[in-house]
Amino acid sequence: MRICLTQAPAEALTARLDLHIFMQHRHDKSFYQGVVSCAGPMYNDWVEAVMSAKATLFTAQPAVSIDSLQINDKTYKTDSWTNVPHSILSLIPRRLHLEPSHPVSLTRSLIESRFPSPTFAHYNNLSPVVTVAQNFDSLGFPADHPGRNRSDTYYINKDTVLRTHTSAHEAEIFRADVTEGYTISADVYRRDAIDRSHYPVFHQMEGARLWDGKKVPGGNIAKAVWDDLSAMPKHNLQVEDPNPTVHPERNPLQAAHHSMEEVEAIAAHLKRSLEGVVVELFSRARVAAAVAGRTPDSASEEPLRVRWVEAYFPFTSPSWELEVFWQGDWLEILGCGVTKQDLLINAGVPDHRAWAFGVGLERVAMLLFSIPDIRLFWSKDQRFLSQFTDMEHINRYRSFSKHPACHKDVSFWLRSSSNSAGGGLRSNAQDFHENDVMEVVREVGGDLVEDVRLVDEFQHPTSGRKSLCYRVNYRSLERTLTNEEANGLHEMVKRDLVTKLGVEMR
Q: Each residue of 471-500: pLDDT tens digit?
């Protein structure tokens, strides 16, 4: 797409760019090059024109009422709960976990390889649009759980959200009872901080293995699990597992539903299964590190080390985190446990027993491929994508550029009333939430923002008003940002903080 400046550049851009086109192209390098090639030496005028056009599109014009949203060929009514911006909707078709040769997809494939069919079915194409009942109610989230808040979750309307976790599909898969196990891999959506390890769209994988008390010989689930475990391959990991399987306070048995014998067997099967995942992933990663000269030859010969740590998760008990000793440090890889029986009962399979696990694919991929910034996963730059080929070869990421950062501070007063600044994208009254600031910055700067952090806060001794100062770090992964561009973006951030959150600039 190419836009040429005329005698009235801002008006030309405003006239020729609707909201969706501008949002789709505002960080596209070819879009900028097309404008610059027409503008020639009028570069500063172009910057001002773009920022002025964005100001007109996003702040100067009255809010436009959109009655519906179309997602994956389906139409959804909007209402006062709607807070999902176009920048998020535009990422839904990407589905990085299914892009061939993409690091997220390669990581998914490697983990799936440890859970073969026909025992396990793999669900990778489930719609990200789910009901509030699927995302929260089916999993027992209390009505006042913070995850239900609009500050944390993207609502399409009051009854419909973009899933915040793959567990939104858990009940329906349990209920279908098609196979003895499954994995789900999917894109999930959360309003979150802006930094090098957080992104509002990321990818999760969860898995479960079930045993039906009505189908196992003699109804003896513990024996059936031990028999299955005996057929599993062994490994040479060094495993640290110092705690008992259950502990009455720290990691309790679901005594109303499970026998100790069942849980001992299920826990052993779960741990052997996931230790096998570590072998699959990190044996390959260690070879890649050795080839790249990142580890001594002796280190590549030593057994991998893992340890099990007691944990708490709302959907399992007892529960554990699995950590791997990697490049001199213990790193958490995943969480898991014995599935809460209430979930199985509510799904209509009360005679089943199960284990389950969940893992963030980007987190693992960043470790495997040494990718330093989560924004890189969304890059379409072939200098990034061409570095990765197939799951047989783990190639460590080679940086193709290092562009300077540009820090800008923004300070503002919150409203003096108890309903201080806030309100997401519709300026409704609500208590201030930091995620609203992140959303405003993300909408303006997109992937040109590396991180945002609170650097100062102050409460006026007389009025009691609170002031906050955030530092925004602008840095492109693909090119050098000029100070003029960063200034223009930052002015837009300040305008949108005022118009959308009702703050007062200092």
A: 999 999 888 888 999 999 999 999 999 999
